[in-house]
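Note on ligand handling. Small-molecule inputs were canonicalized before submission; formal charges were left as drawn, and no protonation-state enumeration was performed. Where a ligand contained multiple stereocentres, the stereochemistry in the source SMILES was retained. For glutathione, this procedure yielded the string shown in the input block below.
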Amino acid sequence: MAFTLYNAPQSTCSQRVRFVLNSKKLPFTEVKLNLLAGDQLKPDYLKLNPNGVVPTLDHDGAIVIDSTVITEYLDEVAPADSFTPESPVARARMRALMHFIDEMPAASVRVPTFNLAFLPSFQAMSREAFVAMAESKPMRKEFMLAMGQNGFSQTEMDAALARLRRSYQRMETEIAGSGGPWLLGQSITLADVAAMPALVRMADLGMQAQWQDLPGVTRWFDNIRAHPSFTPTYYPGSLLSEKFPHLKERAAGR
Ligand SMILES: N[C@@H](CCC(=O)N[C@@H](CS)C(=O)NCC(=O)O)C(=O)O
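Structure output:
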């Protein structure tokens, strides 16, 4: 089986797929796209992924897109060390959680990410170049135009942070209900992998304190960072604070 992963080191969606590939010890060729330079919008890439986003998996010539779909696909074609529970009911719970995670924390984390990390790059562009870039994005045009070159408003930031906070609370409830330490109980599943990058991103943005009163989530976060696949997934250059030093200063409260 030959795998090529089109992705970006710092992309949260890509990190989910790298985690599963690494866990299953599936060798893969990594093609790194520069998202700020617009590699994901080039015609050849759009033929693979018409959404103009990463990740995209090429498995022996078969193209699979969307990170949650890719992780489920990998668990099907390489079922050893499964990330999917046995029973249909537990599988349904896992998939429902994955949908929740995509709609809530994974979507909401884009607001602080763009405001705190990417905005200076967009502010350096001319108005015309910014609008042209936004309009060329198949899925994120309105998101980019809503952010604009002044960034999301405080009201929009607060709303995103409130949605993230409710996501951590939901995780706490799931962990308590399943007995933990993972979302669905004793075994790590694709739902944990789906949630991982949003929390890593928020910690990288200096906002880990937002779940410090939630013991289940705090332990979950320690556990996923201690997982053997974490370090190969978050290889050097995978955190935004490595690329944007102003985030480190912010996280340090300077
Ligand atoms: N639902 C998609 C979302 C993919 C996505 O939003 N990818 C981001 C990086 S995490 C991206 O490529 N953004 C490029 C852009 O906004 O132009 C998935 O999970 O694969």
